[in-house]
């Protein structure tokens, strides 16, 4: 898009073609700004809670991918035994419109996962029970919590990449917590989280930061 600098003098008339062109260019520019986003990936994440192991060395048989690294994944968190509870908790400290996470389950095809977002203003959001696919074989996406990508290990075990829509994108996220709500599901979470953030106009970003200081 090229905008020509055309100065007018006071009292000059403006042709309808010129006015329409200015409006079209401004609308296109605003649409472009509104659609701008940044994509950040957090790797090698550590959780203060939960049980973890590598992908191969030291991993139980039902968690063994027979490789030490898959993509950017190097560690997995899970709840041991026939238990339910918090799998892991990662610090985010940023804004996000969409959060991508990697997961799989020993006993899949069930609603086994809950995700809680804690915001810096003290509020929280907890998702409904989320469907997780099995790690033992590549499954079709389906209609319930479809994955957007997958990784396949040498022993044909799978990691699925899921997307969570943040209902409050204007609130800064302090942390994200994953919870296994189904006994024996064997749900696990990888130590990689990616978030896509709509680029806010500078004035709105500054206002958001100042509001947190009040």
Report on this structure:
- With 214 residues, this protein is an alpha+beta fold.
- The chain has a single domain (38-198), classed as Sandwich (Jelly Rolls), CATH 2.60.120.
- Helices cover 15% and strands 36% of the residues.
- The strands form two sheets. Strands 1, 2, 3, 5, 9, 10 and 12 form a seven-stranded antiparallel sheet that branches.
- The longest helix is centred in the first third of the chain and has 20 residues, at 16-35.
- The two termini are 41 Å apart.
- The relative contact order is 0.23.
Secondary structure layout plus pairing:
Layout: H1 16-35, E1 37-42, E2 51-53, E3 76-78, E4 85-94, E5 98-104, E6 110-119, E7 124-126, E8 130-132, E9 149-152, E10 158-165, E11 173-180, E12 188-198, H2 202-213
Antiparallel strand pairs: 1-12, 2-3, 3-12, 4-11, 5-10, 5-12, 6-7, 6-8, 6-11, 9-10
Task: Give me some keywords for this one.
36% strand; alpha+beta; five-stranded antiparallel β-sheet; Jelly Rolls; seven-stranded antiparallel β-sheet; 214 residues
Q: How many helices does DSSP assign?
A: 2
Total individual domains: 1
Helix content: 10-25%
Give the helix/strand class. alpha+beta
Order of helices and strands: HEEEEEEEEEEEEH
CATH architecture: Sandwich
Terminal CA distance: 41 Å
Shape: elongated
Identify low-pLDDT runs. Answer: 201-210
Q: What is the average per-residue confidence, as pLDDT, rounded to a whole number?
A: 85
Which CATH top level class fits? Mainly Beta
What name does the CATH topology carry? Jelly Rolls
């Amino acid at each position: 898009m090229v905008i020509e600098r055309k100065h007018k003098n006071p009292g000059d008339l403006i042709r309808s073609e010129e006015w329409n062109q200015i409006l079209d260019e401004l609308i296109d520019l605003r649409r472009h700004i509104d659609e701008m986003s940044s994509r950040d990936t957090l790797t090698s994440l550590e959780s203060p809670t939960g049980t973890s192991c590598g992908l191969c060395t030291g991993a139980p048989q039902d968690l063994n991918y027979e490789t030490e690294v898959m993509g950017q994944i190097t560690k997995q968190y899970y709840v041991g035994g026939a238990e339910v509870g918090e799998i892991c908790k990662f610090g985010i400290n940023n804004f996000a419109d969409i959060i991508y996470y990697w997961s799989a389950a020993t006993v899949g095809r069930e609603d086994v996962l809950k995700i809680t977002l804690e915001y810096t203003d003290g509020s929280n959001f907890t998702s409904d029970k989320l469907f997780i696919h099995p790690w033992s074989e590549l499954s079709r996406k389906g209609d319930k919590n479809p994955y957007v990508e997958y990784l396949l290990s040498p022993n044909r075990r799978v990691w699925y990449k899921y997307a969570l829509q943040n209902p409050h994108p204007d609130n800064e996220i302090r942390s994200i917590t994953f919870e296994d709500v189904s006994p024996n599901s064997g749900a696990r979470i990888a130590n990689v989280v990616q978030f896509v953030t709509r680029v806010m106009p500078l004035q709105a970003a500054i206002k958001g930061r100042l509001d947190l200081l009040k």
